[in-house]
Write a structure and sequence with these properties.
The structure holds 2 protein chains of 2 kinds.
Chain A (H helix, E strand, L loop, with lengths): L1 H9 L1 H19 L3 H21 L26 H32 L4 H8 L1
Chain B lengths: L3 H17 L3 H21 L3 H25 L14 H16 L13 H4 L2 H12 L4 H9 L1 H22 L5
Helix pairs in contact in B: 1-2, 2-3, 6-7, 7-8
The chains are: A mainly alpha, B mainly alpha.
């Protein structure tokens, strides 16, 4: 138990990731309002990206922009660039999916006059 | 590390505010501030490109999308009585959280120089990218040179999403 606490204190980013991830999934499955569900979806997506970016950090490293124009580059002085390249793509795709789902929500509102999941399900019966 | 911990606490607080506030417009603005705190944390971790994209696209564009949707629909969360939460959620989420926390010991410690992600493949990009691509920013070199086809296909994804939005929202559409 004590070891587990120690490993968690060394990884504060991971604890924050777990809190945000579970809270977002809980809101997505439990809250009746459709826009609130999308806010939960957004928090889940950003928490996963946060988890990936936290791997790129190195102690004593700076941003991955190479200073010296020539000569040997020491990789330990720069943060790992590969998670950054992956997550920049992921953020843009996340906004694309968010835009489509918000368009679907407003189309649902135009047809049913409500954002509440229960009222929409009652009207569908 | 000292500056980072208050930012992480602020991150959880803003996320909780966005989830708990009843008024949807306020929730969307708190979500924008959540994105901005996230961008600050990423800039602190050395991920400046990701921080730029999150500040522009996450805090800016996502907030505008949410607000446009809310102006076209209703602004209040009208539901007073909360429906019962399904049992699968009440039982499943704590189990998932415990499993995730139990697996934390296998992950590298935060800022570990000798972690697998830091010593495999990525040093080669850092060492050779200036020579091979003539670009000082390694993230740009990866996105626009080594993986330019991925970036190209990503623009197709954005284009498809735009077409889908236009088809859903067009006037007189069913």
């Amino acid at each position: 138990m004590f070891e587990l606490l120690e490993t968690l204190i060394q990884r504060p980013n991971f604890v924050v990731f777990v809190i945000l991830f579970l809270w977002g999934i809980y809101i997505m499955s439990a809250h009746p309002n459709l826009v609130k569900k999308l806010i939960g979806l957004y928090i889940v997506q950003t928490s996963v990206i946060f988890f990936l970016v936290a791997f790129s950090a190195k102690d004593g490293a700076t941003v991955p922009i190479i200073l010296a124009d020539s000569g040997l580059v020491d990789p330990m002085l720069y943060a790992n660039p590969l998670p950054h390249a992956l997550t920049v793509t992921a953020i843009v795709v996340q906004i694309a999916t968010l835009g489509v789902s918000l368009a679907l929500v407003s189309a649902i509102y135009r047809k049913f006059g409500s954002l509440d999941e229960d009222e929409i399900l009652e009207q569908l019966k | 590390m000292i500056i980072e911990l208050p930012l992480l606490i602020l991150l959880v607080v803003t996320a909780g505010g966005a989830i708990m506030v009843k008024d949807l417009i306020s929730a969307v603005f708190i979500l924008g501030s959540y994105s901005f705190v996230l961008a600050l944390v990423w800039a602190l971790l050395g991920a400046v490109d990701v921080a730029f994209v999150e500040a522009v696209v996450g805090a800016g564009l996502a907030t505008v999308f949410f607000l446009l949707t809310l102006f076209g629909t209703t602004e209040k969360d009208t539901h007073i009585r909360r429906p019962p939460v399904p049992w699968s959620v009440i039982l499943g989420l704590p189990v998932l959280g415990l499993l995730l926390l139990y697996g934390a010991g296998d992950l590298p410690a935060f800022g570990d120089i000798a972690s697998a992600a830091s010593i495999y493949i990525s040093p080669e990009y850092l060492e050779n990218s200036v020579e091979q691509t003539r670009t000082p920013n390694v993230v740009t070199a990866v996105l626009m040179d080594y993986r330019s086809f991925d970036t190209f296909i990503e623009t197709i994804v954005i284009f498809t999403a735009g077409i889908a939005c236009a088809l859903i929202l067009r006037k007189g559409g069913s």
